[in-house]
Amino acid sequence: MAVSRRTALKALAASGIGAVTGSAAYGFFYGRQALELSTVDVPVSGLPAELSGLRIGLVTDVHRSRWVSADDVAAAVALTMSVRPDLIVLGGDYVTWGDRQYVDAAAESLSGLAAPLGVFAILGNHDDDHDMPAALAKQQVQVLRDARTRVAIGTAAIELVGIRFWTKRQADIAALIKDAKDPVVLLAHDPRRLTEAAALNVPLVLSGHTHGGQVVLPGAGAIAARKFPVISGLARSGRTTLFVSRGVGTVYVPIRLNCPPEVVLLTLRSENLPRHV
Which residue in 74, 150, 167, 188 has the most C-beta neighbors within 10 A? Predict the structure, then answer.
């Protein structure tokens, strides 16, 4: 029996809708909760040999909300603690749109994080500048808001420099790293700060913000994240290494497709390049 053009088009449309619906259901019921631990060796320019092997846990973009539960965050905390990092970095966006209903809950969900060298945090574009840092501070997390702190490791040290999402000018970042004697690790929620960091010869930048694209379509990729230098993993510009985490939670839509959530264990490795000056 011959099939009319209209019947064929209807069948194609129905199959397309079915595929989209199925993908969305998978992304909601499974994809957004398929938490992974990523372990990555990170080359760092000018890192002293005694700091090679330093292990940093990175947890970012929790987005505690109606769609990201306390249990979801607890799973991320447990997975991070299972690998016993030397130091832990929280990369921002603990809630969505500054929702104060979840500020304390987000901080409390992260309270199980601890490391010998401390737990440090920066703020993302969804975090307010007062309540969120205060809630984190109650959990013994040191929040770096356009600030720098020196972390001693034996006879060596690193300088952690944390900037707010809105701190973008190279001159402002330069002022924060001025006269740093030890390797600088820039904590910048937005990976686009790679441009400024590379211009300043900052050895390492740790970021989140992109969610790895969150929804990655076959053939098309992560359409929502094309404006970033890299949407997840390692990138390099000059002497500067950047690592971007896919993060834990979701934003806008509670779906992850071809982009599982992650917590990360970064192991720093020495590289024979000049240290930041």
Answer: 188
State the DSSP H helix or E strand holding residue 47, giving kind and residue range, or none if neither.
Answer: none
Question: Residues 245, 231: contact at Cβ < 8 Å?
Answer: no
Residue 54 lies in a domain: yes
Q: What is the pLDDT of residues 94-146, one digit of tens each?
A: 999 999 999 999 999 999 999 999 999 999 999 999 999 999 999 999 999 99
pLDDT tens digit sequence for 31-45 = 788 999 999 999 999
Contact at 8 Å (CB) between 88 and 59?
yes
Q: What is the pTM of this model?
A: 0.89
Token readout for 244 is 């971007």
Q: Distance between CA 248 and CA 256 in Å, rounded? A: 10
- Distance, in Å, from the CA atom of 235 to the CA atom of 240, rounded to the nearest integer, reads 8
- Measured in degrees and rounded to the nearest 5, phi and psi for residue 80 equal -65, -45
At position 154, the amino acid (one-letter code) is G
**Residue 6 reports pLDDT greater than 80:** no
**DSSP letters of 72-122?**
HHHHHHHHHHTT--SEEEE-S--SSTT-TTTHHHHHHHTTT---TT-EEE-
Q: Is residue 92 part of a domain?
A: yes
| Segments forming the whole domain that contains residue 207 | 34-271
The total number of structural domains in the chain stands at 1
